[in-house]
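Severity: low
Component: inverse-folding endpoint
Summary: output formatting inconsistent between runs
Steps to reproduce: submit the following structure tokens with default settings.
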């Protein structure tokens, strides 16, 4: 296969390794004496629900549930209801679903089992504002967070403290029933409390942490949400999110069923099978997309010039979640931004090919998973009178690669283990 085909084969291997049909079956809990209620949220949650139904050995007459996923990510289930809502900015459908999920797990007994299926995107999809706040407040704040440059850990800390269901509050409602959370990680370091803002796990963060974050990124609106955080941080009577050691977690387990590292390892196997030495830089790389791209370009140049830290042919693999501080009015997610910055930094160097994409099939809010960078990317751009640095400054990488026919469009993959980057050096 040629270079582009090999890049796509590695990406497909990374995605396949994280498919719910493959990873769910080995982590199913014991069948309870009472009811089994399946709930969940995230881009992979519907497919996780279908895989759960396919492998569950308990009586189906005692199985029910409700899972919320992103629009166009639903699949058909027999006993678990699937609803769709908006991502990355929440909508009324997500709010209604969150309320129904919370209601469905209230007043359960110790004989009952709740299985919570969590994956990336669940924070926006499982949106239930705290008392005194509205959906509009949460929508506005989400937009501010998304363009601020805050990383996912920081964004989800703020989201938890504006929610009636995230940050462990869902676990409070489920107690004393048995709770098993099956998680597909899309966050750096695989922290369970960060994945979908941790609705069923202990929250180590505080209202004061959330206030520090909004101040750090100069977020001043909406006023109602900001004031809520400040008021709760300064109130001795305000109930915090449940912390480690809270009794509501005594009969609870959280299990990571798929992670970015496992997907990078699957891609590395494909590289080796095709004669390329894989180097996994890390599964938790964060930072501004354009700056991360410059570091990756520097490593690629070191390999080409000095055969360090590995000899050619090789492939540099990395995962994690970069950020984009939005200053322009263009189109493009963090992987498109990375790709354009990488192309500029490489400056047409021969023998370097790159694929950067989100494993869920959607780069930010666009219709592409990511982009391809080829040795002739800048030359082809020049022939079309495209100015790469101007597109980058306007955060308009989507339109840049669209005109070069180098968008990677896969459609929903029904899983999500964060960003995937592969730089092939021949």
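Observed output (run 2 of 3):
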């Amino acid at each position: 296969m040629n270079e582009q085909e090999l890049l796509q084969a590695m990406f497909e291997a990374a995605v396949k390794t994280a498919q719910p049909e493959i990873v769910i079956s080995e982590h199913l809990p014991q069948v309870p004496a009472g009811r089994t209620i399946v709930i969940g949220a995230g881009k992979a949650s519907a497919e996780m629900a279908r895989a759960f139904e396919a492998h569950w050995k308990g009586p189906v007459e005692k199985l029910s549930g409700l899972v919320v996923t992103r629009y166009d990510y639903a699949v058909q289930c027999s006993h678990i209801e699937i609803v769709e809502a908006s991502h990355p900015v929440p909508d009324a459908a997500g709010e209604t679903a969150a309320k129904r999920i919370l209601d469905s797990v209230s007043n359960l007994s110790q004989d009952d089992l709740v299985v919570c299926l969590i994956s990336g995107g669940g924070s926006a999809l499982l949106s239930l504002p705290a008392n005194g706040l509205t959906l509009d407040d949460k929508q506005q704040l989400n937009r501010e967070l998304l363009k601020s440059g805050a990383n996912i850990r920081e964004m989800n800390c703020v989201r938890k403290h504006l929610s009636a269901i995230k940050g462990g509050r869902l676990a409070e409602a489920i107690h004393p029933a048995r709770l098993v959370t099956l998680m597909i990680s899309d966050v750096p370091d695989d922290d369970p409390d960060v994945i979908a803002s941790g609705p069923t796990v202990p929250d180590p963060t505080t209202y004061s942490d959330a206030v520090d974050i909004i101040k750090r990124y100069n977020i001043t609106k909406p006023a109602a949400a900001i004031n809520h955080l400040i008021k709760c941080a300064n109130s001795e009577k305000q109930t915090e999110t449940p912390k480690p050691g809270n009794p509501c977690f005594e009969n609870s387990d959280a299990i990571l069923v798929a992670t970015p590292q496992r997907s990078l390892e699957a891609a590395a196997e494909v590289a080796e099978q095709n004669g390329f030495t894989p180097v996994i830089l890390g599964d938790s790389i964060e930072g501004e997309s354009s700056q991360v791209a410059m570091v990756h370009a520097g490593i690629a140049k070191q390999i080409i010039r000095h055969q360090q830290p590995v000899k050619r042919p090789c492939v540099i693999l990395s995962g994690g979640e970069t950020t984009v501080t939005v200053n322009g009015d263009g189109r493009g997610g963090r992987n498109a931004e990375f790709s354009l910055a990488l192309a500029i930094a490489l400056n047409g160097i021969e023998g370097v090919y790159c694929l950067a994409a989100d494993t869920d099939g959607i780069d930010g809010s666009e219709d592409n998973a990511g982009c391809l960078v080829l040795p002739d990317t800048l030359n082809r751009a020049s022939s079309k009178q495209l100015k790469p640095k101007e597109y980058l400054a306007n955060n308009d990488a989507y339109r840049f690669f669209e005109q070069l026919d180098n968008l990677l469009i896969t459609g929903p993959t029904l899983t999500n283990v964060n960003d995937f980057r592969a730089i092939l050096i021949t």
